[in-house]
């Protein structure tokens, strides 16, 4: 009986961690959805002024990121895999693997970041 109870507690605890991680990741998914839609206002709304994106050895602010997102004739689809995350006070640190497919009528290009 103790094993069943321990397993039940573990499942409940695991579910709450998973739900918490999804909530932590929401700003990231909202940000990249706005990127896919070329929506600069929603990009800015997804994060605050402390936002930093570490991209291939470069540090980008939200202004840097907005400046490189320009309307184009492709459809962007984002895929994520969270490596880890933690919250310290009101700041979340999220490490994730990102893959984006860019599809045009002629070809599809994949970017892994």
UniProtKB/TrEMBL annotation:
<feature type="signal peptide">
    <location>
        <begin position="1"/>
        <end position="19"/>
    </location>
</feature>
<keyword id="KW-0732">Signal</keyword>
<protein>
    <recommendedName>
        <fullName>DUF4440 domain-containing protein</fullName>
    </recommendedName>
</protein>
